[in-house]
Amino acid sequence: HYTPDRIVIAAAGQVGHEDFVAQTRDAFWRLLGPGDAPGLDTPQFHPGLTVECANSAQVYFCVAIPAPPYADAGRYLVHVLNRILGGGISSRLSRKLREDTGLVYEVSSEYHAYRTAGMISVEGSTSPDHLVEVTSAVLATMANLFAGVEPIDAEELWRAKTHIRIQHLTSSEDAHTRMCR
Q1: pTM recorded for the entire structure
Q2: What is the rounded distance in angstroms from the CA atom of residue 97 to the CA atom of residue 119?
Q3: Residue 62 to residue 138: CA distance in whole angstroms
């Protein structure tokens, strides 16, 4: 995987370009030519259920479904849908399962995007007595949102977009991001 056509070598500061190139060439002389393109196998989704028992007063659950990869044109819509579904205390899952019914201690969703696949996962915790009811409600909420059965109103869309924008701006101002920029 580490071939010249896939490596970026950078230098900053008072560097003599010709000297730097010569030193780099000397250090990486064994890496010649382009490499074979890495395989782009798309992972297969395997639905199922896994249960692990532990001595705890709560049960933790995770429900995941396939989603577009990070280069897909629809990824921005998925970010907005994820925010509306379970991204914060004003999300549909938080309002329905925590505020309205008190069935969960915590619930949230995330969109994970990779090169050839993605997934939306909903995680949370509840009492053992409510697990079936909670997971059924999570699946119903996801299905209704994604199918448009419970459409997104203008205020909900505005809140989701605003939160994503604020989160993006805030994260771009942390020390590490500023240093890298």
Answers
A1: 0.74
A2: 22
A3: 10
